[in-house]
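As a warm-up, study this chain.
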Amino acid sequence: MCATVTADTRALAAGRHILAIQDTATLRDDGHRNSLNLHPTIAVDAATRALLGLIEATFLARDGGAAAVHCNKRPFAEKESHRWLAAAEAAATLLPAGATAVTVVGDREGDIYEDFALRPPGVEVLFRAHHDRRLATGGC
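Now compare it with the structure written out below.
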């Protein structure tokens, strides 16, 4: 079902600047860290603000248990936060489909180093800042 919808979205991307907007929504949560979450990325035409469709969607099931290895010790590809970069990679497929530009937009949870350093070529990213950053002029 997602493959059909995402193919339709790619077809609509030609000639447009696409905003690839992503976030995580909780679908079910029992209050004890057992939850089912959806991380969709939607395509919006930057000029007209028209919703074009789904770019990508990831389901996340949390079983309530703590991770065996602290997240700072795991490779990025094994972290749940990898979903933010995976969404940018999926959005990049709109460029060969004819999109004139792709800008990935996310909230503070996506403000991680890898989203900037590993972003696909030709894709711009815009995240709400989660961490203060030192500017070249010395300020924050």
